[in-house]
Structures are given as C-alpha cells and as structure tokens.
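User: Here's a chain of 302 residues. Predict its fold as tokens.
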Amino acid sequence: MNASDEALVDLGRALRDAGYRFVTITPASHARVNRRPSASRGTSLRDIFGWSRPFPPDALPRPMLDLLVRAEAVSTAERGLLRSRVRFSSDGDRLFAHSAFPTSDADSVFFGPDTYRFLSLLRRLQPRARRAVDVGCGSGAGGISLADCCGRMVLADVNREALRFSAINAAINGVENAEVIESDVLRDVGDPFDLVISNPPYLVDDAARLYRDGGGRFGEQLSVEIVRQSIARLAEGGRLILYTASAIEEGVDTFAAAVEPLIAGMRYCYEEIDPDVHGEELEQRAYAPVDRLAVVALDLIR
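Assistant: Prediction complete.
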C-alpha cells in the first residue's frame, strides 16, 4: 500500500474504535434522506462517513481529519465545507470502505443492500475451502467475511479501484490470508481453487458503471460467464455460490434458462431470495418486456 492507502486503513480502524456503525441503503433512499432540510450539512461521524454530507472542518476530530487529508479522500464543497470522498459501512464488527455517495463514476465501488443479502447468504451456507476466489469482489466484503473459513482467499476484479478498496478493507479487518488479483472473471487466477463466490453486476446500465452493468440482454451476461468459467476451472467437488438477479419475462426466469444447459446433471440448489428488487429499472427501455427483477442464488457442486 502507498501512504494514502495506509492513512485510510488507520482512519477505518479509528472509526471502528470510536464505535462507528452505519448500514448503507439504496441510492434512491439515500437521496431521499439527504433531501431533508436537517441533512444539509454533517455534524456527526455517521453524517460525514455514512451519509456523505458536506461538513465544517471542526465537525470531525482533528486526528481523523488529518487521516482523511493524508488519504487524499477529502474535497472542498460549497461555503467552505468539506466532503469525504469515501464512505464506511458496517456489517457486524467489520467495517468496509467504499466510494462516497453518489456512486456516479464508472469505477465507483458500491456497498449496499445487495451486499448485505450476499453476506447473509454466505453466513447461511457456511462454505469452507482451502483456496477460494471472490469474483468481482468490489469492496471485498464477501471474501473478507469468509477469510476465517478458508486457507487462502483471492479477491479478484477488473476494477482497480475495487482492488484498492479490497486491500484496504482486508487490512482494516485484520485479514492476512487474502490476496488481490486483477482478473476478468477467473482468467488470471491461477489454479487450484475449490470455492468461487460472486455477487456480480447484474443490471443493464446506460452509464456502463462497472459495479452495475452485467451486459447481455437483461444484465445476465457476466453471471452466466462466471458459471461457465467456474465449472471449467473448479477442482472436482469444488463449489460455486453465485448471488445475482434474473429478469422474469412473461413468468420465465431468464437467468435460470440461460444457465440450465451448463449445469444440467450437476448437483445444485437454485433459489429466489427476493422476488422484486430495483423496480425503478422496469421504466428503462431494456426492461420493457420484464415483469420483475428477482434476486436469485445458485449453489453448485462441480
């Protein structure tokens, strides 16, 4: 890590020691809360590092402000106020750094309700492995949450900003058995590995943001490719846990239909976790024939 990354690690640890907790909600809900008159400026740690509100310099303890400056993660807002360019979200005792609101940049690193559902799925399934790979790791939350259950954890992504945050978050949370690798799915991850987990982008995004745009007709392309490459590369008896979404068109689960030829004859469990997410996306032209978007999970043994 460079000096700015190390400062961000120290800031995350300082926030954790101060008892900071923040559950990150959807961007639409976040925007609604921040439009309230009382939310015009930040006065607390949650305002500054959770809600991404502009704040006066004296609202932040001087040691934390110094770390934010050293991390090169602060910008000047209107009327002499400052704004953090990083957010921190909590899951239990763990703390994760990621991009500030709004996540409009192409390489933004997102943490939100999908992350919490993914982490809940992993806790329920309790996978263990000698060497595991978190594909499209983003903030690294999935892989970091399983680090104690794996001999080695690879955090892989095509987004270098995601890899940076993953390394920072591993350090904040004291994870020493993780490595970050720039890779398009599994192409640059060396064998062997016996567990793949993934919470990939699964929407059609006109702005082509890496954390949202899954490609294909309804955003399913990357998820299908993860299934394809995992089946080809996992050790015999290896496991894939994929959290994604499916466009339901005229009652047909389009993701299930796309992967059925790949997984036929294998041992797997496929479940619908949430029947209706991202309802606002149905107003987009790409989703004109779609009834709903459902969050689904595929748990497969090779």
